[in-house]
Amino acid sequence: MNMQSLITRVRSILLKPKETWPEIATEQDSLSGIYRNYVLILAAIPALGTLIGTALFGIQIPMMGTIRIGFGALLTQALLSYGVSLLMIYVMMLITESLAPTFGAVKDRLQSLKTIAYAATPVWIVGILHLLPGLGVLVSLLGLVALFYTFYLIKLGLPHTMQCPEEKSLGYTITVVVISIVLGIILSFLVGTISGVGSLSGKLPGSGDDVHFEKDSPMGKLESWSKQMEEASEQMEAAQQSGDSEAQQKAMQNMVGTLMGGDAQVEAMSPDELGDFLPQKLMGMQRSNFSAERNQMMGLQIAQAQANYSDGSQQLRVEITDMGGAKGILSLAGFAAVGSERKTERGYEKTYSDAGRIVSEKWHDVDGRGEYSVVVGDRFVIKVEGQADSIDTLRTLANSLDSGGLESLADASSG
Predict the structure, then answer these.
(1) CA nearest neighbour of 259 among 411, 99, 2, 43
(2) Domain parsing of the chain, residue ranges
(3) Is the pLDDT at 119 greater than 50, yes or no?
């Protein structure tokens, strides 16, 4: 699909959906083709709009003025937002496909992706308004309208793409939407775990065949990621042409793993294993409210252990997150944010590299509260937060954990 065809499709699905859905249902296409020629392009609009708009105009806070955020931090958030959008399309595609028999529809992954990808068009197009953050409430209202129009488009499309009985299309739509919202919240939470340290993905201009970077350098990792994405896309195309559903599923999982910069086959540590890194006592402080869990989505596993530590005079929260199969997103982390620093009358925020590890500090002078996080082995995130005498207390507590033990397990696959 060239740019003119893309524009035509956007116009037709927005203005003439009833006539367009039958045409979409009969089109010969592939999963990777739809992603490459439609989803990857349109999903970038909201992220780019927010990035450029916020960079140019800042964030307007009534009665408080304008807040300026470093471009590195903005770029990090934009890339994470873009990644979540791509993953949510995949998640909704799987949900639509798996629910098909329940509503008398035909179980077809390609048609499921068509339904979700083209129905999401209104939300992506409205995202261009983020270029003007001053519109504020208007953008939010139009975004809400676009979201409901997306739901309407799904309802219109299901009878054509999934061959769902007309009378069951509303129930089908509601079920897909509700489940997607729940999973979206979970996915956003998991991605939010690393939003403070950033990630950068994509192939930069000038990184052609005549330019080479050291393998372990940030640019080297970006170059490697770009090549892996190209290979994953080719594998997806080959699997689609083979007609082997099992190979297609494996190729799609591989593409998702590559998108996250990791390996879908790497298992995160079990709750018991990760929990062992939070001892009963830490620097004389007693552990309480301990919990550990491991979650899986789209073949990628992420585990987290957390607990409070208190000595009677202060209480700090400690978290250790194992990114498992998505660990590669941390190997790219900080490329945009490292070196960024922001200081105000209330405190400061900064991200820097310490002995090859990405460190993020946040401190509020007013209430003596802060947050210290460090990325270990490009896979684990240790975070300590709470009220303390200074950021040094949080840093010391984080460094007292067995980060060396975690680093030694960074390349291992646990069960």
Answers:
(1) 43
(2) 3-192, 271-408
(3) yes
